[in-house]
């Protein structure tokens, strides 16, 4: 939910891979020359374009709090990479990224922190009993799903929802893209603080949905309830 998956992509004569177990940092190994070229020591949640020519990932926040996505051309590693600022509000951060089919733009999710809630000191014994730690803290977020067009530098809002995160973005075709939406845990924390039973807490854990967004005409719908990560079958070559 808050971590980084490890990148490992085979593209032509190169392997794009994470450089450490944190998932922040990426390099490209040339199999012909056995040269491993570090690309970015902090780039996270890296994704490869369908044509294998580009990678994109979440860049560290700038000193001004702006959020950006960094893009590398794998055929021209000796040229400067591109950084696109997708949000200037320091309360916003990039969640996950995915390329469109033509590698002319990237879909991405934004996360806005609305509140942080922490259990009271009076709940210490219960927190220790249930979680083995105290206090228990949750983040309540509001999320958006957007598309950044790399040709004209437009940044389009496609979908918004009160949610903890929009993750696992998958592209179905040129007009439909989906992701996993995970609810906030504020209702669950309310029940925890009310002293409700373990069964009640288990029944009210944050739900997750697979949402599909249609680009034209604009729209969205729930594809699957209580489902998480989706794998799309590759098209025939």
Structural commentary:
By secondary structure, the chain is mainly beta. It has 3 helices and 15 strands. The strands form 3 sheets. A 7-stranded antiparallel beta sheet has the order 1-2-3-4-5-6-7, with no helix packed on it. It has a 4-stranded antiparallel beta sheet with strand order 8-9-10-11, with no helix packed on it. Strand 4 and strand 5 form a beta hairpin. The protein is globular, with a radius of gyration of 20 Å.
Set out the fold topology.
Blueprint: E1 8-11, E2 14-18, E3 24-30, E4 35-48, E5 54-58, E6 67-73, E7 82-87, E8 92-99, E9 105-118, H1 124-131, E10 137-149, E11 155-161, E12 165-171, E13 176-182, H2 186-193, H3 198-203, E14 208-214, E15 219-225
Antiparallel strand pairs: 1-2, 2-3, 3-4, 4-5, 5-6, 6-7, 8-9, 9-10, 10-11, 12-13, 13-14, 14-15
Briefly characterize the structure.
The chain contains 3 helices and 15 strands. By secondary structure, the protein is mostly beta strands. The radius of gyration is 20 Å and the shape is globular.
H-E order:
EEEEEEEEEHEEEEHHEE
Mean pLDDT: 92
Q: Fraction of residues in helices?
A: under 10%
Strand order of the largest sheet: 1-2-3-4-5-6-7
The global form is: globular
Low-confidence stretches: none
Number of strands: 15
Distance between the termini: 33 Å
Q: Could you list some keywords that capture this structure?
A:
single chain; mainly beta; 15 strands; 9% helix; globular
């Amino acid at each position: 939910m808050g971590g980084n998956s490890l990148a490992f992509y085979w593209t032509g004569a190169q392997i794009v891979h994470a450089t450490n177990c944190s998932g922040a940092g990426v390099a490209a190994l040339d199999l012909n020359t056995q040269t491993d070229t570090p690309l970015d020591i902090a780039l996270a949640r890296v994704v490869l374009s369908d044509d294998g020519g580009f990678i994109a990932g979440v860049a560290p926040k700038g000193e001004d709090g702006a959020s950006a996505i960094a893009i590398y051309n794998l055929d021209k590693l000796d040229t400067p990479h591109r950084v696109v600022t997708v949000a200037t509000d320091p309360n916003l951060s990039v969640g996950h990224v995915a390329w469109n089919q033509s590698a002319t733009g990237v879909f991405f999710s934004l996360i806005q922190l609305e509140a942080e809630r922490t259990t009271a000191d009076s709940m210490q014994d219960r927190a220790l009993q249930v979680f083995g730690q105290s206090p228990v803290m949750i983040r309540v977020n509001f999320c958006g799903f957007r598309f950044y067009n790399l040709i004209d530098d437009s940044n389009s809002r496609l979908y918004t929802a009160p949610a903890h995160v929009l993750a696992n973005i998958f592209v179905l075709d040129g007009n439909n893209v989906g992701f996993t939406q995970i609810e906030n845990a504020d209702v669950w924390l309310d029940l925890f603080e009310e002293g409700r039973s373990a069964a009640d807490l288990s029944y009210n854990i944050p739900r997750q949905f697979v949402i599909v967004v249609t680009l034209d005409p604009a729209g969205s719908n729930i594809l699957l309830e209580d489902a998480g990560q989706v794998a799309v079958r590759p098209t025939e070559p």
